[in-house]
Each structure stands twice: as structure tokens, then as C-alpha cells.
Amino acid sequence: MPLVVFCGLPYSGKSRRAEELRVALAAEGRAVYVVDDAEVLGAEDATVYGDSAREKALRGSLRAAVERRLSRHEVVILDSLNYIKGFRYELYCLARAARTPLCLVYCVRPGGLSGGPRVAGADESPSRNVSVSWRPRAEEGGRPLAAGTGVLGEPQAVDSVVYGRAQTEVPKELEREETRTPDFPALVASEFEKSAEHVSGAFYPPELLEALALRFEAPDSRNRWDRPLFTLVGLEEPLPLSEIRAALFENRAPPPHQSTQSQPLASGTFLHQLDQVTSQVLAGLMEAQKSAVPGDLLKLSGTTEHLRFTRPLTMAELSRLRRQFISYTKMHPNNENLPQLANMFLQYLSQSLH
Question: What is residue 159's three-state secondary structure?
């Protein structure tokens, strides 16, 4: 079944979008499985992205979890940052090896790619698990305040989810901070109806957010591993369910190539017979050329192919070509070719020597 990869910085709405997609696909009777950081780590921990060794182990665990779940019976959703294009290419190769479609959903925070929503008092108590989205309060005339207005006509309400309880309040610290910096752009986003367990509980320090923004490698639809690409700005933009369904269930899976295909099975005696047959051909050619003159055809018993004799051949030259032929044949073993190994080797010699 298909693989859906979510990509984006923290506080961009990836987890909400992943849950919205899971609910929509499950309502159609499809089996959906979500792989995220919390499942791999046991508990969501943002500090893992500040340690390169731990982050590398996390990516390996996410990749292994996706590989285990890729099957013909489940839709797999990977909900993580996935900000490294090399890791996204590895996921593309997994989907290609499994012969299943893949799509990428890129979530962008309306306020830009750097930084996350600031919460009043977060610096004083960084251990609080808080996820916040901001929405301006409507004016008296019923029209909402425009995002990015220079002067705030009235305090803005903050809808937050703290420890699973929805609260609506205007913190004094936040109100004073907005009064001091009137040019700070407001982040406009609508709230989804969801339970608190679907909200990311990881706290990202400001310095880690800045580091992630600098390291972020944005998806590019020109890359085959980043398409089809769906870009969502904020939580207000509707999820393109019809387009995602078409990309997952109507598109063809990427065709496999040599790097993602399993080697065909070969008998245990294939390499032994290959070595024996090629050695016999070399011995027969060295013996046949002793009585040959330029222009003769060197014929060997048990073969239908012939080698035209144009000059004396040395054992070193023939042995080098034999090693090349064996290396190539080992990459594509086929028991059906065993009776034709001698003829194939003679054809290879004829093309390589002339």
C-alpha cells in the first residue's frame, strides 16, 4: 500500500494534518498506520534533534519502522520532520523496492520557515508541554483582524492546549510583548476538531528551532523523490484529499531498478560451473591456436560459437577477460543459462578482442 511522507519544521501542523488524513482514509475502510517520533522513541523528545548521533539513530529507526509496515494491506503515514533530502530519497527507494506509490506533504507555518510560535513564560519553564495556535479576535464589525497589521486595535486571544485541556486566555506577558513590538506578524490559523493526544507535546527551544531552520532542505517537485508534492501553508488551507487519493491509489508505482531489486536465486553450484566452463574454454583456445593461422576460426567441442583467430592470444589477456565475464555473470545469475555458458563466453571474447 502507499506511503505518505510528511515534511516540515516544528509547529507547522504536521501531526494535525497526518491525523486528518488518517481519519479520512480510515473512514473509507482503509487500514492506516502512522509512524512518528513518539512511537520510535517511546515518548516525544525534541532534544534528539540537537544530537547528531541520536538523530541519526532516530532516522534509522523510522526507516526500519516504515520498511516493516510497507505492505499491500496498509497505508503508511510517516509523521516526522524529514527535513534531509537524502533521508527522503531513502524512503523513495523503500517505496520503489516495495513497488508502491509515494507522495510528500510539505507543511509550512504561515509566519515563515524559521522559528516556532512563542508561548508566554516558555523561557521560564521550558519543561511545559505546550502547543499553541494563534487566531485574532474579530472586530466589532464582525471582520477578523488582518494578519500582519502594524497596530493592534485590541488584545488578541490565544487558543492553547495545555496538558490536554483547552484554554482561551490573554496572558498579560503576551499582551505587553505585543504592545511593545507592533510589527510582529500575527499567525492566522483555524482550530481543528481533535483530541489533545493528537497534538505534539514536544517543546523545541528557540536555539534548536533556529538550527533546524538553517539545516532544513525544502522539498523540490523537480526531484523524483519529492513528487508528487503537496504544499500546505498553515492549518487554514484545506487538505487536498482528492488529489492525495489520486496520487496514492490511481498513480502507478515507480518502476524498480537494479539498486532496489533482489538478486535472482541461483543454484549453489552456479559459480562452480561458471568457473569450470570458462577455464575449459581458455584451455581449448590456447590449444587450438597452436596450429591456427590468421583468418582461421577457432572451434571448440560442445560449442556452436567460433572465435576468429587474428593474432596470437596470451593467457594473461584471456584470463583478464575471463575475470570480467565472471564478475558480470555473477551479478545476473540464471540457471537457465548454464548450458549456454561456453557460447556466451566465446561471444564475449569475440566482441572484446575485435
Answer: strand
